[in-house]
UniProtKB/TrEMBL annotation:
It catalyses: N-(5-phospho-beta-D-ribosyl)anthranilate + diphosphate = 5-phospho-alpha-D-ribose 1-diphosphate + anthranilate. It comes from the Bacteria. 5-phospho-alpha-D-ribose 1-diphosphate binds at residues 75, 78-79, 83, 85-88, 103-111, 115. Catalyzes the transfer of the phosphoribosyl group of 5-phosphorylribose-1-pyrophosphate (PRPP) to anthranilate to yield N-(5'-phosphoribosyl)-anthranilate (PRA). It comes from Sphingobium ummariense RL-3. In the C-terminal section; belongs to the anthranilate phosphoribosyltransferase family. Residues 69-319 form the Glycosyl transferase family domain. This is Anthranilate phosphoribosyltransferase. Its cofactor is Mg(2+). InterPro entries: Anthranilate_Pribosyl_Tfrase, Glycosyl_Trfase_fam3, Glycosyl_Trfase_fam3_N_dom, Glycosyl_Trfase_fam3_N_dom_sf, Nuc_phospho_transferase. The gene is trpD. Anthranilate 1 binds at residues 75, 106.
Amino acid sequence: MTRLPDPSQPLSPDEAARAFDLLFDADLAEADIAAFLVAMAQRGESAIEIAAAARAMRARMIPVVAPKGAIDVCGTGGDGHHTLNVSTAVSLVVAAAGVPVAKHGNRAASSKAGAADTLEALGLDLDRAAETAEETLADLGICFLFAQKHHPALRRLGPIRKAIGQRTIFNLMGPLANPAHVRHQLVGIARPAYVPIYAEAIADLGVDRAMIVSGDEGLDELSLAGGNDVAEVHGHGLVAMRRLTAAELGLATHPVDAIRGGDPAHNAAALRALLQGEPGPYRDAVLLNAAAALVVADAAPDLPHGVEQAAETIDAGLANALLNCWIAYR
């Protein structure tokens, strides 16, 4: 009889690889899958286990081809703060600044408007965007990789995860299973304590450069409200931890509630206003995170220059024009 490894103790690399192969491919009882995922979550997933889950998902996803130097800007979600779509706006700004962005995302799970919901409200045809993803990435420097279209292996686990009703290791997987195999990543994670663990996992998977960030409030992006834990990863092993505040970059401090979002129409209107130059906390949050993405993409030498470059890109109308071209793309 096929059995999953005992999840009460951290798994070895071989055990973890076998476990996730079984989760995806074996004829396991749903109760056994649920018990395994819950026990692992209660113990706390290790970097080895996170990397093994990502490898299993990557082996089963539908890939796309991306230009060299492409980046993803993606959060794990689930932070409970229901903010405006920061990473989606950052993706547009960074792409307009000349860095190819393969944006991996989905509809909202715990918030009112995920990246897919907001882009759709802005007028992007998600089905068409999926069909032309490689083309728009090559022609415009941006695409949206709708997670549910690229990860068919997750369909079986979806009802089980929903029935569990709590976070599992798969809530950490989105940024690690980008169908474009990006080698540059800005990843926001909703659990500050997991920043070094997640950084170790992404280093094990191998990147050219990545930054793992978490706001002290459990925000899955760089926060304006207070401090941020940041891990910088180069290649397969160099992980440097640091603390960062918006004030260090000359940006104003704002409470998280200052960028609270709403339904897709509300978030879409806020994003459009931002791209048209509206000042305020949303702009500051986007500048902060865009600066980090530009540094990760080797397009800015440091964060202060990244803030300046992002502001110039918005104020020149480049990001707004890119969104218009993307919506009109045929």
